[in-house]
Specification:
binds zinc ion
């Protein structure tokens, strides 16, 4: 009886080790970037596929950093449309975030939450108060301390957020 239990435990141990090795191997495998599909840059089709019309412009892919390839471990932990991986993130912060740094993860959550809150506010001002994109931009710039010099760019973004809402 003990022998059988012993054999089962050994078999189980081998199975667990093999499974872990398989997971390690998979996480180190190089894959085609799920955001840009290997091109190294995102185009209109990638943006539409990931439903980021309001948030992204075409250009260098910031998921694979223009390489077109990423590790399996990254695909397993970070979604292709992760908004935190954008052009305002510096190289050091990006590296830490990809490695799973807790502080960077918290910053990413905060960033995504405040972005979503701002989008909801824009939609609310547009649908409930019938404000124009220009009026919404003026209001948010005044309330949030956004530099006035960013006004033109900000209006374009507000228009995109409204357009994305209308598409849904
Ligand atoms: Zn990419």
């Amino acid at each position: 009886m003990y022998l059988i239990i012993g054999i089962i435990l050994i078999a189980l141990g081998i199975f667990i080790v093999a499974k872990r090795k398989e997971e390690d191997r998979r996480s180190q495998e190089v894959h085609t970037c799920p955001r840009c599909l290997g091109k190294g840059h995102v185009d209109e089709l990638d943006i539409a596929r990931l439903k980021r019309e309001a948030d992204w412009m075409t250009g260098k892919c910031l998921y694979c950093n223009g390489k077109g390839k990423v590790l399996g471990s990254m695909i397993a932990t970070i979604p292709a449309d992760e908004q935190y991986l954008n052009s305002s993130l510096d190289a050091t912060a990006r590296k830490l975030f990809v490695k799973g740094d807790a502080n960077q993860k918290r910053r990413a959550e905060l960033f995504n939450t405040s972005l979503n809150i701002m989008k909801e506010e824009i939609i609310g001002l547009y649908t409930l108060q019938h404000l124009s994109a220009g009026d919404i931009a003026t209001k948010l710039i005044a309330e949030r301390g956004i530099p006035k010099s960013d006004y033109a760019q900000f209006v374009v973004w507000v228009e995109k957020v409204i357009a994305a809402q209308n598409r849904e």
